[in-house]
Amino acid sequence: MTTIAVLGAGKIGEALLSGLCSAGRAREDLLFTERHPERAAELTERYGVGHVGLAEAVRRAEVLIVAVKPQDIDAVLAELAEHITERKLVVSLCAGLPTALFERTLPRGTAVVRVMPNTPMLVGEAMAAVSGGAHAAESDLALVEELLASVGKVVRVPEGQQDAVTALSGSGPAYFFYLVEAMIDAGILLGIPRATAAELIVQSAVGAAAMLRDGDGHPVMLREAVTSPAGTTIAGIRELEKHGVRAALIDAIEAARNRSVELGAAHEGD
């Protein structure tokens, strides 16, 4: 079996560890690095996965999954470059960072695959997009897709689309959580207890998502099916349009894309 090391056990790193464990991957084939001892002990107890230093991770693992914050990447790459002495597959989960950044720093010919995942991998419902770097073979991309398929869905995209993917699906769950939060607050305003409002809205979101995923209707068709003439739904839709909710969402996603571009540009001169 391929040994996988997750470098950085923050939210997305833990989500991947959790998803891989839940999908049945053997604990002895998984490793992780974490600079905070208390956090490391907590994750080892929770998942039964070994905590190691970065040098040990490089020595033992064939696949190195980099899941650190973009601002921490320089130190991690410097240490990786020091310890990689044979071919490894490096998988970046770092928002905004291009494969070229890794290729400039790591030993010549290192295979790099860029991935934009999202946090629903915690429940096996991730959406991830993968792009190969200059030295990534088809077998490398296939392996990454296989790993990620165990925690959700995977698509392959040109790397030039990764900043847009980051804005859409990488940040996307936060937008849905934001909308659900607002709808629960509206339920409370209308006199419904918080727990009941949450149950109503969350299950409505789950059902709507299932209809979008499993049905063959366009979102417009599904919305129109709920919207009766002179009914309650169209009254609500009118208010959403009046307040520019559609335009605000488009602007938010564009802003997230622009920030992803900025994160990558900050390392262009490295």
Give descriptors for this structure.
single chain, 270 residues, alpha/beta, Rossmann fold, ProC C-terminal domain-like fold, eight-stranded mixed sheet, 55% helix, NADP, proline biosynthesis, amino-acid biosynthesis
Structural notes for this entry:
The protein has 2 domains: 4-160, Rossmann fold, CATH 3.40.50.720; 172-260, ProC C-terminal domain-like fold (Orthogonal Bundle). Helix content is 55%, strand content 13%. The protein has 12 helices and 8 strands. The chain has an 8-stranded mixed β-sheet with strand order 3-2-1-4-5-6-7-8, sandwiched between helices. Helix 6 links the parallel strand 7 and strand 8. It starts with a strand and ends in a 5-residue tail after the last helix.
Topology diagram in text:
Blueprint: E1 4-7, H1 11-22, E2 30-33, H2 37-47, E3 50-51, H3 54-60, E4 63-66, H4 73-83, E5 89-92, H5 99-105, E6 111-116, E7 126-132, H6 138-149, E8 152-156, H7 162-170, H8 172-189, H9 194-214, H10 219-226, H11 232-242, H12 245-265
Parallel strand pairs: 1-2, 1-4, 2-3, 4-5, 5-6, 7-8
Antiparallel strand pairs: 6-7
Helix pairs in contact: 7-12, 8-9
| Biggest sheet: strand arrangement | 3-2-1-4-5-6-7-8
SSE topology string: EHEHEHEHEHEEHEHHHHHH
Stretches with pLDDT under 50, minimum 5 residues: none
Strand content: 5-15%
Q: What's the gist of this structure?
A:
By secondary structure, this protein is α/β, with parallel strands linked by helices.
